[in-house]
Amino acid sequence: MAEQMNIADELLTSMEQAVGIAEGTVKPGRIWTPPEINVADIRKRTGLSQVRFAERYGFSAAAVRDWEQKRRTPEKAARTLLMLIDKEPQAVERVLVGV
């Protein structure tokens, strides 16, 4: 039977691994590479203008414009929301109706 670690030991082990990753001596278990997304295509599929799209989903109009013109890349949280808008628009709408 494998010996169980207590929470303090687990945290210490995790912290040691984090330091090793930061120092480059340990490889991370996984690395999330965000997929390429085309904000203009996603927005166009919604039928909304840049301004209306930004208002609807809580982005700034300037950010939407910059993403579409490839001057900026959406941060992880924005990218996740954009992927949801693209793949599951009804789910996003259900959530926003309650807001």
UniProtKB/TrEMBL annotation:
The lineage of its organism: Bacteria, Pseudomonadati, Pseudomonadota, Alphaproteobacteria, Acetobacterales. Keywords: DNA-binding, Transcription, Transcription regulation. The keyword Ribosomal protein does not apply. It comes from the Bacteria. This is Helix-turn-helix domain-containing protein. InterPro entries: Cro/C1-type_HTH, HTH-type_reg/antitoxin, Lambda_DNA-bd_dom_sf. CDD domains: HTH_XRE.
